[in-house]
Amino acid sequence: LLAYINGASGADARGGWKAGLALAALWFFQPLNVPLAWGLMALAWGLTTARALASRRRPAPSEATTAILARDASGRALRMVAQAIIVPAPFVVYSVIAFSTNPALRQWTAQNILTSPTAVEYLLGYGLLAPFALVGLVRAARSHEIGANLLIAWVIAMPLLVSLPVNLQRRLAEGVWVALVVLAMSAFAAWEEAHGLRKANFGSALLTALALPSTVLLYSSAMRAAVRPAEPVFIPAAEARAFEWLDAHATPASIVLTDFATGNALPAYAQVVPYVGHGPETLYLAAKRPQVERFFSTNASRSARVTLLATSGADYVILGPADALAAAPGGLLTVPGIESRFAADGWQVFEVVLVLPP
After folding, report:
1. Residues 149, 4: contact at Cβ < 8 Å?
2. Calpha distance 73→54 (Å, rounded)
3. What is the per-residue pLDDT across 109-132, written as a single tens digit (0 to 9) for each?
4. Is residue 43 within 8 Å of 109, Cβ to Cβ?
């Protein structure tokens, strides 16, 4: 965005290309943010153009120079937007094709729902900065610079972006914190010009003081979690040993059948694939989870267990002390084709050596 602003303002003729290269790199980390940045650049260009046209209609001679400069900035901004689109466009096209044609990516998209919180929660999150940012917004409105227009467009567009009917609504607010902080600091700069450094420092100190409770809460919660070992920050040593046994003996990418909570922690310790274990990343979780819960219950039939072993392609099964099946007479040994490989402190690892018809 800075490269775009420098290019549109005339400070860097290659700003658009630099912005495009930065967005191409960004695509590898968060593809969604590339079209989001394009939209923000386009909005800034649109606002710059609209303000330039408005200035041209004003007869006052004092407006003439401003209008010419704004018109020039509008033309440069449009070129910068085009250049910023050209470079990463192939990556974005690839994303669209992949998420439209790949069955796994299509299903992951369908169940990866990140809706926006309520307006009240947004106000709680951004509210401390809001009064200061509003002062900065008014100050930015008096400027025709492309950077000011970008900030104005970003803040105004944010409520609309997070209301769009898409499954990644809250992701569209990413980065707006930067715009709010810049606007707030602009307000402090204005106060320094008008009233001196002392009052500006008082305002920034007040904002910092108001923000301290959330920081204290964050660090105190982290410290409490560190000094009182408990799940999910820590896992029992016995569970870790079972995971380490799997990492040492299982072939990488082996499929492991286990309950959801165990499957969620397992990949951090062993190079295996849990059948269920993470919400959006477990494809068809809504259908799989009830089957897994039934498998580990004591009243599941032998045929139901064999069927899930066959359909899941499981290579291993893990039982923990909390699993009802672990305490059942015979446990999984009643299912043919399963052999016990590890048992310690209530944790058991079984290898699926042969899946017989139910």
Report:
1. no
2. 14
3. 999 999 999 999 998 888 888 888
4. no
